[in-house]
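Intended use. Records such as the Chromate transporter entry shown here are meant for training and evaluating sequence-to-structure methods. They are not intended to support clinical decisions.
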Amino acid sequence: MNLLKLFISFLKIGAFSFGGGYAMLPLIKKEIIEVHGWMTTKEFIDILAVVEMTPGPIAINSATFLGHEVAGILGSIVATIAVVLPSIVIILFIAHFLSKFKSSPYVDWAFKGIRPVVLGLIISASITVSKDAFIDFKGFILGTVLFYLISFKKLHPILAIIIAGVTGTIIY
């Protein structure tokens, strides 16, 4: 039964998340933590740290790791297939009809309407994760400094991850 719940949860996440992995985080958190209680917020944040460091799309990595935590290897497979299935179906559908409608103003308007929602989902995910990631003032300072360095000084994200890991090991 857990596999069916896992499949349905990640199918919903894949079907209703526009804008990639970061936009999916609020839906993933709601399904995994709030709806099913498969893990705590702290466990979710720890898995997100691993997902961020591994190569590949965040949504697929999240589904794979979270599926494994819930139901082992089979859970990884089920969650990963479920999260990509809606995209595959949608892409095949769009590819079939896009040549007919690519110049339609309605298609352009629809995508212009979706963009702000994607931004809102990403901001929501950031705020949600920030609440639980900043466990004390030291973490808040570290996160703020790294955000500044990445955003304004163009520090490479891999270097930021290494700095955060080393700094966390030292101060905690």
